[in-house]
Task: structure prediction
Amino acid sequence: MPETPITHPAPSSALPARLADHILSELIQRGAGPGAFLPSEGELVNRFQVSRPVIREAIKQLEGRGLIEVINGRGARIRPLGEQQLRAYFTHAIALQRVPFRELMEARKPIEIQSARLAAQRRTPDQLDALQDIIRRMRRNIGNADAYVDLDHDLHALIADASGNLIIAHLVRSLRGALNDLTHETLYRRRNRQQLERVHALHESIVTEIGYRNPDGAGHAMDIHFSEALSFLIQRREGGAARSP
Result:
């Protein structure tokens, strides 16, 4: 590549950030994917006509954004897409930016509905078997709040995986994880047996419709499930934290 010096001098504190953006832009233009290594430190020095400390700080900033990982003795490479960065963003939004709990739950609802619709169209036989196995285990643990919550998490994550959409899968996991990071009481511990049976019946309905490859039915069942869960959680949230469904 030809040399591309960073023009229009900026304050020294801003230069590494600008350089990090330049490096990222070139990686995108090259079509570099997960696992691809960045040019060496020396190559970047020649490429951008800046000092090694500036290059190192730019690399550090890219690493801090979760975009690359530095491997001792080998260099820096692009990290695979994961939900950690999104989870950190949503956690920050709730804890520090005071984004209302309701807003994150409202954002999660249409994602979960689309997840169920796509899963009904794209799930594999093995994925359906796994969903049905989770539903059976949830039934056996309906009186065990901690176990049921863990299985509920697995159910929604597997539905997202079955959607065949990587972005949806990461969004579902990161939103759920952020909400759980910052809340302390489970949805299920505060419900009576009749309410728990209703929640489980909706879970069963979602999986049944996914099994029938009925996207409208799966989406509708998830819509009802999430509408009821959202209403319950918001009511409980007024008196304290509640854990997500």
